[in-house]
Design a protein that fits this description.
Rossmann fold; 6 strands; 30% helix; globular
Amino acid sequence: MDSLKNRTLLKVIVLGDSGVGKTSLMNQYVYKKFNKQYKATIGADFVTKELHIEDKSVTLQIWDTAGQERFQSLGAAFYRGADCCVLVYDVNNLRSFETLNNWHTEFLKQANPMEPETFPFVLIGNKTDVDGGNSRVVSNKRAHEWCGSKGNIPYHETSAKEDTNIDEAFLGVAHIALSNEHKQTNDIYPRGVYDSVTDIIDPDQNRGCAC
């Protein structure tokens, strides 16, 4: 029990359009697995990763949320208590990049953090492996410019399929989340939140991916 008391819980929310590879990134990071079959996340689900950062035992709780619009109204329950928000887009899909502003704004609206101007975000451009990079439509420069417009948030490019830069990206996320750690202790299952969402999470779904 002492080890649990000394453990820091960091809640990370992963947002982005359906099909950009949010689930694949998380499965590759936590389980080192990649599934070519895509199945959309229903509602939300989460995985955990144990880390040691700055001599602290950290449990990184990463929430995988549905990209479909019909689930976005559930945001307030899922986003509450987050220590960092990861925005994901597909470098080969312009629309997934153009909707980042919407995800950014909606998160701040739903999560309602105490200091929205300084709340930590991280941007991930996924699927850099597709067609050897020849299908890419969003340049590294354009992504960095977007990050600059949001207060110079960190940016990482990844390939969930090839396991490229996944560990580095999430380690950066963990460091940022730790720096924003809440003064109050967050329960792993916030009372009233987890129970209210279990009905919309499909416990038997095969964890899919978006390549």
